[in-house]
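Wait, mind explaining this?

_____
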Amino acid sequence: MKLLISNDDGIFALGIKTLADTMALAGHEVIVVCPDRERSATGHGLTLHDPIRAEPVTGIFHHTVKAWSCSGTPADCVKLALGALLDSFPDFVLSGINHGANLGTDVLYSGTVSAAMEGTIEGIPSIAFSLTSFTHKEFQPAADFARDLVAHLAARPLAEALLLNVNIPPVPATEIVGVKITRQGIRRYFDTFQKRVDPRGKTYYWLSGEALQDIEQPEHLHLPPEIETDVRAIKDNYITIVPLQFNMTSAAGVFGLQDCGIEDLKSFKSQSE
């Protein structure tokens, strides 16, 4: 199969090398297009007012892997690959393996998830992979699971193109309990801005923060509470899979707005008329 792989940790990250090489050794045609530097927490940002440059890269990945280093965001990388660098669409778009978790509300900020979402928008089955630790550096169990998951989905494809957000616990393969289809939990962060002064005497701010509270089982409009969240299941050493979609319309919100009569405002006229 033809696989496009990107990330937000940059071209030299161990996670993407492990993933790309594992897929190449499994016999897949692998194309890597990823940022030339760290681009974490860029969300779905796109580069509109500057040129995007892509340079071929050799000597990093397995010799069969074709790779480009891109000056843009993770979403730029996938857009550029699909629109300019590849001669045909891939069978899958993969993103990662991210060094750090993308659980719960993390997906709103994640460049890793956004890169995969670009594939989903184009109707391509896409998967984001994250190893839920910033210090653990053994990516092979996650890459092995990615290889097996792609093979399984190729044999038994989903009815529609979804983004699968996959998080792998930072433990040896023998300690991974299993795989769970989960729903999103909620992660709340305690954000702080450190005020600093640069050598020229100008003030700048450095955003820092850490997870303050994980809400493990928030209510969901359509899913029963017995379906665990990714935040909960990862603590029990399960690999978690959350299917995501780019259509963020709130069904409850649509009916709620209709009930409160907002559509009556269509008769509103500006005072200038």
Summary: The radius of gyration is 21 Å. The CA atoms of residues 179 and 239 lie 5 Å apart. The longest helix spans residues 140-155. The first strand starts at residue 2 and ends at 6.
